[in-house]
Amino acid sequence: MNLTDLITPYLTNIGQRYGCVVDASLCSFDKTLTPLSTAFIIASIAFFTISSYFFVKRFHHKIRDIFILLAGIVIFELFTAPLWNSLHLGKFGYIYIDLSWVLTIAWAAAFMASIMTIDRLLGKQKLRVKYFAYLAPMLIFTIAGEMILTSIGVRTYAPEVISTSLGWFFTIPVEVFYYAPVFSALVIAFFLFWKEVANGRPFVPTKRRFSLQNFIVFFVGIVAYELLVEPLALNQHFPAWSYVYLDISIIRILVWMLIIWLSTWTLDFLVHSVNYFWRFILYISLSSLILYQVESWMITNQYRVYSESVVQNFTGFVTPFSGIPIEIAIAIPLYLMIVLSFVAFWRMTLDNNL
After folding, report:
1. Which sign, positive or negative, has the C-alpha torsion 316, 318, 324, 325?
2. How far apart are CA 249 and CA 237, in angstroms?
3. Residue where one domain finishes, among candidates 166, 201, 236
4. Contact 168, 157 (CB under 8 A)
């Protein structure tokens, strides 16, 4: 028996396939360019090019800062991809399934424009003040952008988003008014924090504090993200009193929060002198290992059932031993990258009075 024969039973669930493996049509969508989508691609490239030029030349950011921003956007898009569909962006307009580089650079341009605008207006204000101010232009960009995308046929929303929407603002769900600031807050925190780490600044979070402040930061970050991705999965069989909004259970939130919080606090205590980049990798590794076991148990026991739009994106590959889709295992560290960056940013900001 060769290595492939040994590994294959663990990687692939022979008895059950998902999404694209069952039906290739589930992964097919209309990529055909239209005059309007072509114009959007050209405009996005131009917007990104101009924004990048001013971001580097006039506001003295480094080129790597743009890549940090792009990384934050891509991680976020990978995790939330089942919430919407991106169409008509051409054969070469996609990175993964319907995740498009065109939309990624358009979002990056919007973020850079927002950051430059606020930095020009509030340059001498504290970072925490500018952070919240960044959200205002991004709200405008997001709402206008989503309305444009839906009107030209590039954006449609998953059935789960439509079915749970509280209403519509012209062509977009009213939830965009929540999605926009949360998306912006998480990505901007990711960008600002990792920019400082990349620059080697000494004021990365260093205090080992088992404090209410850190608890609140964790809670806010996790709850904000959970509300955003609520349509992706159904949480069931929890006590009725634990549901705080739709099927979001406070029990699950607290379990995840405590696992992440205690994992990071433990590592801060044990390996405080380790370079922060590697300590962050350890945060993600330890938290992912524990959360993977918890999520596997919840899926196996039907406490967590993923939506049809999520399942359609599954390739059919599963993880060894637990047998959960490989995409879920990958999603956990992606989730942690965003949430822990948000937490680290606010620890850095509050600890150093920025």
Report:
1. negative
2. 10
3. 201
4. no
The verdict on 225 and 162 lying in the same domain is no
- φ and ψ of 5, to 5 deg: -65, -30
Q: Domains in the chain: how many in total? A: 2
- CA-only gyration radius of the chain, Å: 21
In a shared domain, residues 223 and 342: yes
Question: Quick one: CA torsion of 210, 211, 215, 218, rounded to 10 degrees?
Answer: -70
CA pair distance 43, 46, nearest whole angstrom: 5
Where a domain ends, among 201, 231, 251? Answer: 201
Q: Please determine, for residue 97, whether its predicted confidence score (pLDDT) is greater than 90.
A: no
Q: Please, are residues 193 and 119 in contact by the beta-carbon 8 Å criterion? A: no
Residue 59 — pLDDT band, cuts 50, 70, 90?
confident
Q: Point out the least confidently predicted range of 19-28, 56-65, 150-159, 268-277.
A: 19-28
Residue 148's domain comprises 31-201
Supply the pTM of this predicted model: 0.85
Greatest mean pLDDT among 31-35, 263-267, 271-275: 31-35
pLDDT, averaged across the chain: 83
In-domain check, residue 69: yes
Q: Are residues 191 and 219 in the same domain?
A: no
Q: Do residues 232 and 271 both lie within one domain?
A: yes
pLDDT for 18 beyond 50:
no
